[in-house]
Amino acid sequence: MNFLPPIQNPVLRDSPFFSAMSELEFVAVLAFMExxxxxxxxxIFNEGDTGQDMFILLSGALSASKKQSDGTQRWMFDISPxxxxxxxxxxxxxxxxxxxxxxEDSELMVLQGIDFYRIIFExxxxxxxxxxxxxxxxxxxxxxxxxxxxxLVQWGETARRRAITDELxxxxxxxxxxxxxxxxxxxxxxxxxKMSLVMMDxxxxxxxxxRFGQAGGDKVxxxxxxxxxxxxxxGDIAARLSGDEFAILLPDTSGSDAVTVADKIREKISVHKVxxxxxxxxxxxxxxxxxxxGVSAAPTDADNxxxxxxxxxxxxxxxxxxxxxxxxxxxxx
Length: 333
Known about the structure:
This protein is an alpha+beta fold. The protein has helices at residues 10-13, 23-30, 87-92, 113-122, 124-140, 146-164, 174-186, 189-192, 205-231, 255-270, 305-321; strands at residues 34-38, 43-45, 53-59, 62-67, 73-79, 84-85, 99-102, 106-112, 195-202, 237-242, 245-251, 273-277, 284-288, 291-298, 327-329. The chain is elongated and about 75 Å long.
């Protein structure tokens, strides 16, 4: 048996499960997994068992079998090192479809179901790559596993949307925005190419909530989100961070150009009318929305996610101090 540390095991790194992941992502996912040793003729699980984990075979050999109507076990297929299995019981929440037994002493890596979902929802970029890898392998089993593939595609698309989008507005969420910025810093896209971050929030939104209630505030937030969607350029990433706070990542855009883009969005929002009912009189009121924006650029103002967000926040604060309903570009002076 091969007892190399998992991180040094080429079979694991070359597994189709990790095929779309960078080295950093591979190490991050591996941190969630545990090693498991299986003796010859020992079953890792039996047909009909509740599935809570998925597995990657490091060394040895496994076979899958299914019980026939007469009670005998029929061989279905063998599992070779590097292959992963068991994921469909987690995804479809269904019992194991076969019995998996060791043909010889074998070594596996185990990913628990709870950690499977943690990766998807806490690290959406890695989660998407993981689901894509699973989908690619399942596609090869289309004829034998058509039902499971359909469930995977449907479940994976739903999980992907929930993992990266804000439920109220349909914009991207903070996690996806930050992962996207990290990816650009990590891949070296910043330095040879520019990017800018626009941070924005609505002016005096607490007064809107006081006059029109939570439903009115949500209607305003949704209206702003729709404008951001309609004015987005290819490659731009508009996200709702929380409450009335939004951000827009503008790839290949300098700070000065980002100010121009942001001001067009601000102007569009400022003339958009939203009809709301007052809480005290139920009177229908026509409301104009105002927003303040701060812009920071990389690599000029920052070389990491935290500093890019911080400098954009500082510019946003400056816009508010100067009277709101305006766009300010970050300056260190």
